[in-house]
Description:
By secondary structure, the protein is an alpha/beta fold. It is 34% helix and 26% strand. The longest helix has 16 residues, at 168-183.
Amino acid sequence: MRAALEVKNLTKYFGNFAAVKGLHLRVEPGQIYGFLGPNGSGKSTTIRMICGILPPTEGEGQVLGLDLRKERHALRQRIGYMSQKFSLYGDLTVEENLAFYAGMYGLEGNRRRERMRAMLALAKLENRSRDLAATLSAGIRQRLALGCALLHEPELLFLDEPTSGVDPLSRRHFWDIIYDLAAGGTTVLVTTHFMDEAEHCEMLGFIFQGVLLASGSPEKLKESLRGKLYGVERENPMDLLEDLWPRTGKDLEDCYVSGQSLMILAPEGIPEDLKNLSMHLMPPTLEDVFVSLVRRGRKEPSA
């Protein structure tokens, strides 16, 4: 089966600064793929290149069977893009925002009316179509912005930090919509820095300083963590860290404080100095995996 998108050696320079470096990525049709990384890691730049908004400095790719470099205009008619800032006009009403985007996508006549009604229903705004977008809550603006991106029924949807600044209930509802879209065959690529949101994705890519550090399912990525993760509960875990690190740091993959616990990522054989601690085996989280990958990428010491 042809991939929904596949890029090879995707690279973007701004002057001498490499925002994205040699990125390889493949996303299957109907898949929810998550791009995970801190602000400034290259997530948005990558999406803008794949969307055809930014031309890559190097590399090549196919998106929905179209050449990323040569068919950028045709590509834009078949994808949806929701930016980090929601892309709404606050001084326009809900209906006017939808009408503006319908015009941008060339929707006319009955299809235009039907799609606008459908997106009002999606956003649960049937009774607020004449409200100014600026008066809506963040969660409702988010749903409206998603509706604008879906008006033309895109095959591939890009969501750039879509739930930043949105309350947990609105985030959950938003992800219910994404699941429904994927079940209907829409491919979704979403960037996020929320680790809990990343769990909703079928496949994940960890990106840091423009480099794709790892890619795979959440389960496979957790299994890739080097060593075993243990927790030691203490009233003052920082004191324990300061005591242990000078003696055992060289024998550990990582060691850090999380809440009231000292987390120890140890190789298969536990160092002798740690055997007298009341350690319990912990299931790794995506945050544990990401922090470990970033530190290895930086080649910086743990703790």
